[in-house]
Amino acid sequence: MKFVDEAQIRVQAGDGGNGCVSFRREKFIPFGGPDGGDGGDGGSVWLVADEGLNTLVDFRHQRSFKAKRGQGGMGSQMYGKGADDIEIRVPVGTVVTNVDTDEEIGDLTAHGQRLKVAQGGRGGLGNIHFKSSVNRAPRKSTPGTPGEVRDLKFELRLLADVGLLGFPNAGKSTFIRAVSAATPRVADYPFTTLHPNLGVVRVGIDQSFVIVDIPGIIEGAADGAGLGIQFLRHVSRTSLLLHVVDIRPIDGSDPVEQVRTIERELEQFDTELVGRPRWLVINKSDVFSDEEELHAVANDIVARLEWMGPWFLVSAAGQVGTWDVCLKVQQFFDAERAAMREKTEAADDVRMRDL
């Protein structure tokens, strides 16, 4: 299935049913009075997050969704039936934006989460509501109000713990194959990956994390060059970034300059991303036969980058060093969760003392 992470649709809620003008007509009751009922409410439009979906491709085929209008009121004080709401299933991780106002309406991040995006119209009032001491036979009713109409933009941001960054052909797809059950296509030429790949890395019992391979980002990606701009948004949900760099790029370019280029693209796209935890993974150590030369080149890259964070030397193709990276990543998340628990417990203690 083709991966689609953006879509635009139109949703239209149902109009409310009109109120009814009616009078009671029964034998021996010449002045029965008004008995027109109210109209029913129109159907609303809801979005429902579904973990069974992983793409927005269905919205390439159907772009308009309309709920039914409410039934009109009737005589004998019978109210019109309200129309059923309609539900539109979207993948977990979908961000919804109003096209006209560019306002973010909601972010669906959990399975089963619901979001109302168009309110159905209210039913009109029948003439029974307009009876008074001075108007015993009102011939007035109100029409139902129209349902909301909105043009919506969907933007899918993958929910992953770890994001893999790097130039095309840096070995990100090979890395994700080495550490998870994901099977992205791998080849020797650039731009092999045309869509993000998710994989689950299981370190132990109840110890796992989700890793996403972000397609190759090149210089100018934040301005629309290459494929990177289409997928930079997926980085925003990750807690940890692994910056994969080829120790000896096949085009003869400098690994240090590749890292700097992607740093600039991250900062241009979202300045917050630069400050996110990011570890360096120097890949393709198997291209060196001399162990001393390998470590000398790796240390030179780290020194010229002035890299202060964790860094690793691996061969994703040979699965050398990749498991050590996964263990360190799991320790990172275990420490984060422990810190979060301590913070929550401390807050609970403060509330208990206040009581």
Summarize the structure.
The protein has 355 residues and is α/β, with parallel strands linked by helices. It has helices at 172-179, 228-231, 255-269, 271-274, 291-305, 322-354, and strands at 6-12, 45-50, 64-66, 86-91, 94-98, 103-108, 114-118, 149-156, 162-165, 197-204, 207-213, 240-246, 278-283, 311-313. A hairpin with a 4-residue loop joins strand 5 (94-98) and strand 6 (103-108).
What does this structure look like?
It is a single chain. This protein is of the alpha/beta class. The protein is built from 6 helices and 14 strands. The protein has a 6-stranded mixed sheet, sandwiched between helices. Strands 3-1-8-5-6 form a 5-stranded mixed sheet, with no helix packed on it. Helix 3 runs parallel beside helix 5 (291-305). The radius of gyration is 30 Å and the shape is elongated. Residues 189-193 and 220-228 have low confidence and may be disordered.
What's the layout of helices and strands?
Layout: E1 6-12, E2 45-50, E3 64-66, E4 86-91, E5 94-98, E6 103-108, E7 114-118, E8 149-156, E9 162-165, H1 172-179, E10 197-204, E11 207-213, H2 228-231, E12 240-246, H3 255-269, H4 271-274, E13 278-283, H5 291-305, E14 311-313, H6 322-354
Parallel strand pairs: 1-3, 2-4, 9-11, 9-12, 12-13, 13-14
Antiparallel strand pairs: 1-8, 2-7, 5-6, 5-8, 10-11
Helix pairs in contact: 3-5
